[in-house]
UniProtKB/TrEMBL annotation:
The keyword RNA-binding does not apply. This is GNAT family N-acetyltransferase. Signal peptide: none annotated. It holds the Pfam family FR47. GO terms for molecular function: acyltransferase activity, transferring groups other than amino-acyl groups. Keywords: Acyltransferase, Transferase. Residues 101-227 form the N-acetyltransferase domain. Coiled coil: none annotated. Gene3D superfamilies: 3.40.630.30. InterPro entries: Acyl_CoA_acyltransferase (IPR016181), GCN5-like_dom (IPR013653), GNAT_dom (IPR000182), YpeA/RimI_acetyltransf (IPR050680).
Amino acid sequence: MNETLLDNPAWSALNSEHADFAMGSARAKRYRPGVVPFTACRNAQEGIEELIPWMTKGETFFIIGHLPVLPPHWSLEHELPCAQMVLAQTPPAVARQHDAATVEELRAEDAHDMFQLINLVQPGYYHADTRLLGTYYGIRQNGMLVAMAGERMRMTGFAELSAIATHPEHTGRGYAQRLIEQLCGMHAAKGITSFLHVATTNERAIRLYEHMGFRQRREISFHKVRG
């Protein structure tokens, strides 16, 4: 697989598997509003100003990777350094516990529960229609969605695992591992390589992903910008 596609993941996705979600020009694109707040340029050194007509004044969004010189009225609010990790080997099977719940594919009728869970655990990156980007799986307990994970940026040969979230009252039961295993198995069956992004400060999650067969490819930042 051509891993250089991952150097500019949003651009690679918006010009392949996610082209239907793209708005912008030949040099700069964004995901349409309400899907996911990511923008990208073909060349990190130029073209960012071509996104201005496609942005709402005061809107916040993310530029992943190299940060170009911003237009005068745009400002950088935050930088989140992340480890970009790529699946290097088949994840080990997760030991099933006595209270093992069923993994189910999440659908349109689950949209509200998905939005509530992910924004409880990881606010800011998941919007109402982010679920449209790929397949999502979840685990319920007594009818309540307590864990979920799915696909975000998808491009030729690669799919990003994202929205990996477990309700704080249901952690420690191996739910995240089971959902990762489900997604990676689906990708492997399709000949797709799984990858993900995790904050470099989240050492516990990095250890989990390494245990699941992921290797760190590079460090890449998510820059939060206000337009």
